Amino acid sequence: MSALTDAEVLRLRSDFPALAAEVNGQPLAYLDSAATAQRPASVLDAEREFLLTSNAAVHRGAHTLAGLATEAFEDARATLADFLGADPDEIVWTSNATDALNLVAYAIGNASRGRGGEAARRFALSAGDEILVTEAEHHANLIPWQELAAATGATLRFIPVDDAGIYTLADAAAALTERTRIVAIGHVSNVTGFVAPVAEIAALAHERGALVVLDACQSAPHRRLNVAELGVDFLALSGHKMLGPSGIGVLWGRAELLNALPPFRTGGSMISTVTMTEASYLPAPQRFEAGTQPVSQAVALAEAVRYLDSVGLERIDARENELAQRMLAGLALIDGIRVVGPAAGVPRAGLVSFDVDGVHAHDVGQYLDAQGIAVRVGHHCAQPLHRRLGLTATTRASAYVYTTTEEVDRFLAAVALVRPYFGVTATTTTGAQA
Amino acid sequence: MSALDGLYQQLILDHSKKRFGDGLLEHHDAQHFERNPSCGDEITLQLALEPGTDTVAALGWTGAGCSISMASASVLSEMAPGMSVDELRALIGEFREMLRSRGAGEPDDEVLGDAVAFHGVSKFVMRIKCAMLAWVATEACLLEVRPAA
Ligand SMILES: Cc1ncc(COP(=O)(O)O)c(C=O)c1O
């Protein structure tokens, strides 16, 4: 599929009012979409329109507005299901990906304590069982598993990464054992841009009877996902990274798994019968949606998905790979830059993290900000990965559907001036990593 | 001067490279570890008093962080020796006030000495914690050697 062209990107930018801003007297170059994306006017309008015409509690009242709200809420669920190639009953609204990953981990913890009865026994973990993650995980896909291991006596193991922060299918295969019960991996690394061989890992994991949980936070906004092709069992994503609102995310799970899993949070809207001593629970997805839900956010997220579909995720993905390769090529020409992640030429996500020899990432980010260029600096919620790379912090530039070639070039020109500005001349590393 | 140049004064850039007090002390009376969890900057700072007195003999530290955090540790380490515990506490208080000023007012260089170079940081809310890192660690050391009345 052909990549989105410069002309098309320039045209669609007018859909994003926030991009017209000036920052420090310069036109904003927003290269921090991997942290949170800007939203098209249609998404803002959809949320407002819902609130103006249809706002009410869903699945609760019998009046007209309650009906409209419930319909919009469930339509949004169906839109997200289509987007992932899933069934609407497999789409659980959460507040973000972090919440979705915690939901799975804590529900399995509950199953391990005997909750959920016979059906949930298949999830129960005990001493000797293994949970497998990678060394590159975002903290959101690491700490819930640490907690689950601590609560059940299971062992948390990890697939190690190399000096560039990436791993191979063979590394994953070597880390799987007969005791592996859960494999929790990121689809696209928010630090390296590495795209994991998900379907292959899932096949290996399933051979050993393990469940596969996919953190799709950095893939869902940028590439076409299909849960059947990915072959995973659970998948988490966040709305705010894919042109949608904050406060909304999705957990997708295979229907038979969701319906066997005990709830994580309990309360209103997720029960069928309640007595003073106990309750029985609705099937998925309601079982996992206790309390008042982020309804206008769900409606707006569905609009964001329609926007992405109208542009075409295949074309967005191809475009972002081009921009990433342009960044890699440009950074390779600048003295003292160490890029992490896959080598130039390898297809990757549209983000590049790097270290500037002699200048701390915060100072790099500050320098770029003064030119109106917004990048992310720090450990990007991946401390173990940075420790493995021997870095405390990196600078990350990330592209999205609205990123122009000119913005990338402005970024590269500014990075070239960072070391001179801070008076660093001695070079210990040259060019990108091999 | 641009806002950026106001932040990165030459004195700060110099101190971030030639760091005063970098390295732990042979003897110390208090030690404190301080970390900025949002960015990962960290410092282990030690304080030594002249034996039997209230006078600061030296600060020594090891740390990793941005130029602002490292330079502010360096400037403080240069200024602190010879001050009494109370004087150093007062200096830290003044420094904090200056950083909270959002760029308003003129800092008093009689009181703040070289630390006035950090006045520009007060316009960058995201960087105030960087400038305070060593100073907060020193404050904790002072509390350890001389609990506040
Ligand atoms: C790979 C990855 N996983 C998980 C998350 C967590 O997303 P959220 O904070 O929206 O829950 C992020 C976002 O920073 C991410 O990049």
From TrEMBL, chain A:
Broad EC category: transferase
CDD domains for the chain: SufS_like
Domain of life: Bacteria
EC code(s) of this entry: 2.8.1.7
Keywords in alphabetical order: Pyridoxal phosphate, Transferase
Residue ranges of every copy of the Aminotransferase class V domain listed in the record: 30-411
PROSITE patterns linked: AA_TRANSFER_CLASS_5
Record flagged with keyword Transferase: yes
InterPro entries in the cross-refs: Aminotrans_V_dom, Aminotrans_V_PyrdxlP_BS, Cys_dSase_SufS, PyrdxlP-dep_Trfase, PyrdxlP-dep_Trfase_major, PyrdxlP-dep_Trfase_small
Transferase found in the keyword field: yes
Pfam families documented for this protein: Aminotran_5 (PF00266)
Cofactor dependence: pyridoxal 5'-phosphate
Catalytic activity reported: (sulfur carrier)-H + L-cysteine = (sulfur carrier)-SH + L-alanine
Family that this chain belongs to: Belongs to the class-V pyridoxal-phosphate-dependent aminotransferase family. Csd subfamily.
Role noted for this protein: Catalyzes the removal of elemental sulfur and selenium atoms from L-cysteine, L-cystine, L-selenocysteine, and L-selenocystine to produce L-alanine.
Protein's name in the database: Cysteine desulfurase
Protein's organism: Microterricola pindariensis
TrEMBL record, chain B:
Pfam families, sorted: NifU_N (PF01592)
Domain NIF system FeS cluster assembly NifU N-terminal: 8-130
Database matches in CDD domains: IscU_like (cd06664)
Entries under Gene3D superfamilies matching the protein: 3.90.1010.10
InterPro entries: NIF_FeS_clus_asmbl_NifU_N (IPR002871)
Matches recorded under NCBIfam families: SUF_scaf_2
Protein name per UniProt: SUF system NifU family Fe-S cluster assembly protein
Organism: Microterricola pindariensis
